[in-house]
TrEMBL record, chain A:
GO terms for molecular function: DNA binding; DNA-binding transcription factor activity, RNA polymerase II-specific; protein heterodimerization activity. InterPro entries: CBFA_NFYB_domain, Histone-fold, Transcr_DNA_Rep_Reg. This is Transcription factor CBF/NF-Y/archaeal histone domain-containing protein. It comes from Glycine max (Soybean). Residues 68-131 form the Transcription factor CBF/NF-Y/archaeal histone domain. Pfam families: CBFD_NFYB_HMF. One of its GO terms (cellular component) is nucleus. It is found in: Nucleus. Heterotrimeric transcription factor composed of three components, NF-YA, NF-YB and NF-YC. NF-YB and NF-YC must interact and dimerize for NF-YA association and DNA binding. Keywords: DNA-binding, Nucleus, Transcription, Transcription regulation. CDD domains: HFD_NFYC-like. One of its GO terms (biological process) is regulation of transcription by RNA polymerase II. The keyword Transcription applies. Residues 1-43 are annotated as: Disordered.
UniProtKB/TrEMBL annotation, chain B:
This is Transcription factor CBF/NF-Y/archaeal histone domain-containing protein. It comes from the Eukaryota. Residues 50-114 form the Transcription factor CBF/NF-Y/archaeal histone domain. The keyword Transcription regulation applies. Pfam families: CBFD_NFYB_HMF (PF00808). CDD domains: HFD_NFYB. GO terms for biological process: regulation of transcription by RNA polymerase II. Residues 1-46, 151-184 are annotated as: Disordered. The keyword DNA-binding applies.
Length: 192, 221
């Protein structure tokens, strides 16, 4: 938690780089050795570049008919809350933009974990680690599956999380070892 | 999208079903391909609960290196995370509306909720995005904009759109009064005696008038 707060403070103070620099940095990421201090700094720089790019992108948007996410589906998810009565036309539009940024931020943080374990495929455990390391993602803890091979207490600590991810785990489509799944839906997806 | 927005404004709710057939079709194909599931009910339910996995996957690929790959379970996990994010923010925005005794959740409520829930970095892009949306939609849809403005006024919300000044084309009723009066020449006496006041004839006439007056006075006595 403290690390997250420090990271956020650093983010606030730093000035973002242009998107082009961001792309170069992303390409050079695989070359960086998997050590904690450089990785954090690299992740912070990526996020700063990301948010700077988002601010610029929002200013240049002129077409609101094409969204990266379907508004009708967003409406249905909003409607699952029974307390919600009516929403204005702009609400799903704002949500579409917010969800896009949410997916991107989550993916950037997860990919940092993929690189830390020298992996080439972003997997669920990378997401679980990213979520445990980010304060604003605490609301997702309840829906995250508990992996027997990766106890939750270890997830809370970044260093321990890395220790529990040896290089030989670089295998695609890791099977679910846990007999019980916190989220029934995932259990159904497992056979597929 | 435009039709959808239009439908959404008039009823002031979203009882209307989805009108994006192409998207749903794509979603159905994606779901079937991923789940390899023959239960249509389950597929429909899956569609309603999550955003399409294809859309989610495309967005994820934008922020990882070109040679990077994303596992299927990761995409599915993000699908669930996004739905949770929407519900999380919606709950906060809905609570705010209830406290303020308003029925409709608008864009500003969503942005407020996102700020409250710790996603500060999202706020500036979203405010810019919403402002742009209002400007463009306001120009495109004149009539729905008026309805939207009325809703906002009814909800005691400040309207940021530039109101288009209406020109009052009232007919000019100028009263035209024409004077038909004809100027008449001054009265010119035709009696020549009056034109010569000091002539002897004139004096005699005056005396006669005095006599008449005396006669009248005698009659009263």
């Amino acid at each position: 938690m403290d690390q997250n707060k420090q990271g956020e403070a650093a983010e606030g103070g730093n000035i973002g780089h242009p998107a082009h620099g961001k792309n170069q940095e992303e390409q050079s990421n695989p070359m960086i050795a998997p050590t904690n201090p450089p990785k954090k700094k690299s992740l912070e720089e990526q996020l700063n570049d990301f948010w700077a790019a988002q601010r610029e992108e929002a200013k240049m948007t002129t077409n609101f008919k094409t969204h990266s996410l379907p508004l009708s589906r967003i409406k249905k998810i909003i409607k699952t809350d029974k307390d919600v009565k009516m929403i204005s036309a702009e609400t799903p539009v704002v949500f579409a933009k917010a969800c896009e940024m949410f997916i991107k931020e989550l993916t950037i943080r997860a990919w940092a974990n993929t690189e830390a374990r020298k992996g080439k495929i972003l997997s669920q455990r990378d997401l679980v680690s990213a979520i445990s390391q980010t304060a604003s993602f605490d609301f997702l803890d309840d829906i995250m599956p508990k992996d027997a091979g990766l106890p939750r207490t270890s997830i809370a600590s970044t260093e321990n999380a890395y220790l529990n991810m040896p290089p030989q785990q670089n295998v695609a489509g890791l099977p679910y070892d846990a007999p019980t799944m916190a989220f029934p839906n995932l259990n159904h997806h497992a056979p597929n | 999208m435009e039709d959808e927005s239009h439908n959404n404004i008039l009823p002031n709710g979203f009882n209307t079903g989805s009108t994006e057939s192409p998207c749903l079709k794509t979603s159905t194909m994606t779901t079937q391909h991923n789940n390899n599931n023959n239960h249509q009910n389950h597929s429909n339910k899956e569609q309603d609960r999550f955003l399409p996995i294809a859309n989610v996957g495309r967005i994820m690929k934008k922020v990882i290196p070109p040679n990077g790959k994303i596992s299927k379970d990761a995409k599915e996990t993000v699908q669930e995370c996004v739905s949770e994010f929407i519900s999380f923010v919606t709950g906060e925005a809905s609570d705010k509306c209830q406290r303020e005794k308003r029925k409709t959740i608008n864009g500003d409520d969503v942005i407020w909720a996102i700020t409250t829930l710790g996603f500060e970095d999202y706020v500036e892009p979203l405010k810019t995005y919403l402002q742009k949306y209002k400007e463009i939609e306001g120009e495109k849809l004149n009539i729905p904009k008026q309805l939207r403005s009325e809703q906002r006024l009814h909800q005691h919300q400040q309207n940021h759109n530039n109101n288009h000044d209406e020109n009052n084309n009232q007919p000019f009723n100028g009263a035209y009064a024409s004077s038909n009066l004809i100027s008449q020449p001054p009265y010119v006496p035709t009696d020549q005696k009056f034109s010569l006041p000091f002539s002897p004839n004139s004096i005699q006439n005056q005396l006669r008038q005095q006599e008449q007056i005396d006669s009248v006075g005698h009659w009263y006595e």
